[in-house]
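Appendix B, example 12.
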Amino acid sequence: MKYVSEICYVSPIAFFNTIEIIFLVYSLQVPRIDMLAGIELYSTKFEGIGGRIKDRNEDFEVTEILHNSVFKKFSKIKTKKNRFPLYVLEKTGLDSNHALIEIRKELGIHVRLLGIKDSKAVSLQYCTSEQDTIQNVSTRHTKLRLLGYTEESVRKSHMVGNRFDIRIHETNNNNISDFSEECRFIPNFYGLQRFGSARLVTHLVGRQILKRDFQGAVDLLLCYTTEYDTEFSKEIRERCQDPQNYQSVLRIMPRGMDIERLILTALVNGKKHISALREIPINIRRLFVHAYQAYLFNKCLSTGIKEGENVTECKVGNLCFEIEDQSNLGKLQKYVDSMNPDKVVPATQLAGYSLRKFKDRFEEILFGILSGEGLTPNNFFLREMQELSVEGGFRQLPLMVKDIDYEKTKGLKFRLPIGAYATTLLRELMKPSNPIKAGF
């Protein structure tokens, strides 16, 4: 932590801001499950409205926002210029990766999504496909509709954010005016669903893969549990600790444990642990290392804030994104005094094999956490499983909440940039003592 004399010398305002941050960190008790995900503090003084989310899938609606340029040269019919089909996918009660699997199995259609969405929601997502004869089709959990045709294939870079409409049940306070003023201070933490929610195992599997401990990764997937897990899940995972039980466990394993079923089947058939991991679909398998990357970011952000760093202000020589139209993040560069602070947002690096030293304020923290975990950037290049190698990247530090509006009868509405988590805002608003019971 910075010395008080150093803070005072820089700015008396910075001193009092730091004292307030330290007060928040140590006065508000953070749930243990948040701590396990690297989220070690609250950034708002707001007491919280309590309540629950996701009682029904319809209580949590999310709609993707595309850049306006996509629709400037859009056609309802296919032409020589407009030849790339654009679809909208509505899914309910199924995560994005399993939605793709369901569509492929039931309809024989291969589609490519721009973003990944949670299962406990109603989601409207844009997607593309090589097949342009699809009109209106559906599966058990999805509806796929052709919107029209674009001049170029729509990519993830065309997506600028998500719009949320959320109902919160049994709140104890309906006045969030104070909270709305504090929203800009919320850090851009990855939410619990990035790590597997109740089990919180995804990032742990990723860490073992990076350490080339493939047996350890498999053991975690099959056996690891937390106090937030269901009793039936705990029973299944306890039995998986003994390989002699694999055959009998396969007979009683529920459909929802499809990943565990794939691994057990591979092991029963005599495959090695690394081969068993490869039985998992690639889009799901990649989540493991990405989840660990997210954990490192959360831990780094928590540590920096506790040491007095302000995630809303750019510092000279530190990384920042330019803010373009529609609050889209533009060019990454180092901040200089001549820049308009309202047109940039602070950023930092994500762990990966390309991680290098930019002399950024969070850089030393990240390298220190990696060292404590027994890892270096080189670990993120996996010669044994190159398809899981992670280069790295950059991420903005604040959550960047826009257009927040709340009425008890109509719910909470707001907008977030791509990659930001609605539950990161909700944990600050609700301050749940048990996030899992609260629907997170």
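The domain at 57-163 is CATH 3.30.2350.20 (Pseudouridine synthase). Residues 282-306 form the longest helix (25 residues).
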